[in-house]
Design goal:
Helix content: 40-55%
Distance between the termini: 11 Å
Number of strands: 10
Radius of gyration: 18 Å
Largest sheet: 8 strands, parallel, barrel
Strand order of the largest sheet: 1-2-3-4-5-6-7-10
Order of helices and strands: EHEHEHEHEHEHHEEEHEH
Structural class: alpha/beta
Strand content: 15-25%
CATH topology: TIM Barrel
């Protein structure tokens, strides 16, 4: 079975100890640790705290899927600063035993149109960061987001990167941007690091997150594509409670999401399985 994890974006007020305990109690296989100023992990954490987190996770039988770095590579200045930041987060991922650093390409200023040279510069930065990450057993994984939510746009960047640079398929983000799962999967399937899962409802031009299985995101179709093509990687629940406190709190949402994901996985199993 594919391991199922969750992002700590879901539980901004929980301590690291509570996150690990709850993940184990709920039946998750691992955790996607959120970095940044408001996250649970940062490169400058005391070494003893990093070691304790790694040991607690291991003792609980939980994998560290990824560490999230809030990077941006749109402008020259951002590229210089965030390349170094991405290297630091790769070091953090290695120290925590995480397989990936989840990185963002950034958000375009109003009115800016992406161009070929921008994609080339982004790819150059990711290649340099990837060289460092690979040397310590970590891989960079690009998160399609903001102005780069569509798989076709992200592909313009990672097609120019080292094969070790991976991509995260956020099914909900792509669907909200107007992309059908078949389109996204075909473009990303050979570079998938892992898959993020969320659900939402579209009302006209507005998009609203909702409980898994109650929205318009064709999660079942996406899971069928994944399993039908032999995908064995992780699925990570992204419950955006930190940004949307109107949503159900994590103690309610995370167990419910896990039940839905497991049901979707069971229903999507190929007939020959």
């Amino acid at each position: 079975m594919n391991p199922v994890t969750f992002s700590t974006l879901a539980c901004p007020t929980w301590s690291i100890d509570t996150i690990i305990a709850k993940a184990s109690d709920f039946g998750y296989d691992g955790i996607e640790w959120r970095g940044g100023a408001e996250g649970h992990v940062q490169p400058d954490m005391p070494a003893a705290q990093k070691t304790a987190l790694r040991h607690m996770s291991s003792d609980a039988g939980l994998m560290a899927l990824a560490v999230t770095a809030y990077t941006s590579f749109v402008s020259d200045e951002e590229r210089r600063v965030n390349l170094d930041e991405l290297r630091r987060y790769a070091d953090l991922a290695a120290e925590l035993g995480a397989s990936y650093v989840r990185a963002f390409l950034g958000e375009l200023p109003t009115g800016m149109i992406p161009h070929a040279s921008m994609y080339e510069f982004m790819a150059d930065c990711l290649n340099v960061a990837s060289e460092h990450a690979i040397s310590i057993g970590v891989r960079i994984a690009i998160e399609p987001h903001d102005d780069f939510a569509r798989s076709s746009v992200v592909a313009s960047v990672f097609n120019q990167t080292h094969p070790a640079v991976r991509v995260i398929w956020d099914i909900g983000n792509a669907f909200a941007a107007g992309e059908h799962p078949a389109e996204g999967f075909e473009l990303l399937k050979d570079r998938l690091a892992y898959v993020q899962v969320k659900d939402g409802k579209r009302r006209g031009n507005k998009w609203r997150l909702c409980s898994f299985g109650e929205g318009h995101v064709p999660l079942g179709k996406a899971f069928e594509l994944l399993l039908g093509n032999g995908y064995e990687g992780a699925l990570s629940v992204e419950w955006e409670y930190a940004w949307h406190p109107e949503l159900d709190p994590p103690e309610i949402a995370l167990p419910a999401a896990l039940r839905t994901v497991k049901k979707l996985l069971a229903n999507a199993q190929p007939e020959s399985a």
